[in-house]
Amino acid sequence: MQRVTGIGGIFFQAKDAVALRAWYQRHLGIDVQPWGGAAFSWADEAGQPVGGSTVWSIAAEQNAQFEPGRASFMINYRVADLAELLAALREEGCQVLEKTESSAYGEFGWVIDPEGNKVELWQPPAGQ
């Protein structure tokens, strides 16, 4: 079974999310969008677009999105088959959260690693 196929996104919390987003935009040139982050489109060696992107986002410090994890960050990993992977992780004794989400952006599930970090698993919609 194929498990993680790439990084779908990097999310982290900030004491002043608005100011930190502005800093990254001004000093590093990240095209921060009104929703609080940016999407970096993937390209091949020749610079031609390929199907996919990596999301980068800053959230307010008091954001329930990271619970029950204890870290101020969360990495989103792309996976080929979310249901199959969650079942395998449960079978392996991992702390898999019962809640999953389905939307136009794909399927999402979560597991807590041994250090207490919430890890997001994302199966993109077909064609991405």
Notes on the protein architecture:
The protein is an alpha+beta fold and 128 residues long. The chain has a single domain, classed as 2,3-Dihydroxybiphenyl 1,2-Dioxygenase, domain 1 (Roll), CATH 3.10.180.10. The protein is 17% helix and 43% strand. The protein is built from 2 helices and 8 strands, in the order E-H-E-E-E-H-E-E-E-E. Strands 1, 2, 3, 4, 5, 6, 7 and 8 form an 8-stranded mixed β-sheet that branches. It is globular and about 45 Å long. It comes from Undibacterium rugosum. Pfam families: Glyoxalase_6 (PF18029). This is VOC family protein.
What's this entry about, in short?
It holds the Pfam family Glyoxalase_6. The chain is 17% helix and 43% strand. It has 128 residues and is α+β, with helices and mostly antiparallel strands.
Q: In CATH, what is the class?
A: Alpha Beta
- The amount of helix comes to 10-25%
- Measured between the Cα atoms of the first and last residue, the distance is 20 Å
Number of helices, counting only DSSP H or I runs of 4 residues or more = 2
What is the ordering of alpha helices and beta strands? EHEEEHEEEE
Low-confidence stretches: none
CATH topology: 2,3-Dihydroxybiphenyl 1,2-Dioxygenase, domain 1
Strand count:
8
Q: Which architecture would the CATH scheme give at its second level? A: Roll
Q: Summarize model confidence as the mean pLDDT.
A: 88
CATH superfamily: 2,3-Dihydroxybiphenyl 1,2-Dioxygenase, domain 1
What would the principal axes of the Cα set say about the shape?
globular
- The structural class is alpha+beta
How many domains make up the 3D coordinates?
1
Beta-strand content: 35-45%
How is the biggest beta sheet arranged?
A: 8 strands, mixed
CA radius of gyration is 16 Å
InterPro entries: Anthracycline_SecMetBiosynth, Glyas_Bleomycin-R_OHBP_Dase, Glyoxalase_6, VOC_core
Domain VOC: 6-124
Protein name: VOC family protein
